[in-house]
Design brief:
The structure is a single chain. This protein is of the alpha+beta class. It has two domains: 4-200 and 349-401, FAD/NAD(P)-binding domain; 206-340, Translation factors (Elongation Factor Tu (Ef-tu), domain 3, Beta Barrel). The protein contains 13 helices and 23 strands. A hairpin with a 4-residue loop joins strand 6 and strand 7 (107-110). The protein is elongated and about 85 Å long. The protein binds dihydroflavine-adenine dinucleotide. Dihydroflavine-adenine dinucleotide is lined by residues 12-18, 36-38, 43-44, 47-49, 53-54, 142-143, 170-172, 175-176, 180-182, 184, 347-348, 375-377, 386-389, 392.
Length: 403
Amino acid sequence: MAISNNYDVIILGAGGAGLMCALTAGQRGRRVLVIDHATGPGKKILISGGGRCNFTNVNATTVHAQERYLSANSHFSKSALGRYTPQDFIELVRSYGIAFHEKTLGQLFCDGSARQIVEMLMEECDRSQTLGGRVDFAFNSPVGEISHDGSVYHVMYNGLRASAASLVIATGGPSIPKMGATAFAYDLGRQFGLKIIEPRPALVPLTLGGDDVLFRELSGVSAEVVAQHGKTAFREAALFTHRGLSGPAVLQISSYWRPGDRVGIDFLPDHDAPAWLLSEKRARPKATIKSTLDRVLSARLAEALADKLALHGNLADQSDVKLAEAGALLDCWPFVPNGSEGYAKAEVTLGGISTDGLSQQTMEAKKMPGLFCIGEAVDVTGWLGGYNFQWAWASGVAAGEAV
Ligand code: FDA
């Protein structure tokens, strides 16, 4: 018989959500055990934001939640986001003297290193002891059998057994398996009767095949564009890669894209391209389409697009109709990606544990008292730019206050 350790709360997963839940519960005087199969805490935090952790976005608020968090229930995230705001996390960061800056579009990054965020969260877990609680960690600990006896959850790990009235699933989604990411949360959710919204990779580069494959010649070229899918559009940088398209604008639109869908790229976001080409024809009739595009785009991109438009001669040689057609293409160049780079390169996972079965105030399963689901494991996925960490913090706090 394994030795049994009794806790108030067992948290599976020491990522952003699990750590935030642990420190919140610990500081409320709870005895908490965090179990993770990784060698240490916050592995994704450490590599996030190119090592500087884009730890929140000032716009990750209830006002924008419906638009900027994708979920089968677009209202679900509002309660937690409303109670633990970007400002709350900023105050915590400030209280540790961690310097940060806004890069763009409300995205806040550490000036120094993402490690400072992990150290801050671990120190806050330690601080529980001064407040009557305790947070213990078990790393290098694959989780074994989990059971519920009607009032208490039992978790096997490392040949030990831990028991607690509250069990928190914070094991994230399957994005970046080589970092230890797994679909464990979904299996466990199913075990306890929770529905799973089909997961798929998101914030992920898209791959090009067919005729679009020619664009791979542009590998390494980036440009500010508007990437569009249906009515959704993002104006940011796009990057051509040796397999397809990446860059923030494309990563954002990938969360809306489904196999077979078209993605439109506006290569001239500051121009109404048909009108602009016609006015260029009047102003510089001897210019070619390439030299015209050269004035507003990088040389390689201008050349590639001019080749594909195949308008021979100078602007004066083109009919207005032809130029308007070329302009329309430049305003919304249609790509039909043949796939994505998948979980290996996806920053997050869409879908996951359905919010239907969870309380939006506490993240507790409605039909399994004491079972909580937080962070990326849940069917709530934010835009690029700090939205996903804010969801991890906010959902972690919501559960941490209830366990
Ligand atoms: P997270 O995945 O962080 O943690 C889950 C934990 O559970 C891990 O520690 C894992 O080891 C553990 N685990 C998994 N399966 C287990 C099992 N079977 N047994 C035991 N333990 C298990 N977001 C953002 O807002 N700003 C940013 O700058 C970035 N940057 C970024 C870069 C890259 C490369 C990636 C991949 C992702 C980002 N993100 C991001 C997204 C962000 O990292 C993500 O949304 C959060 O880390 C999710 O936090 P969670 O705690 O829910 O899961």
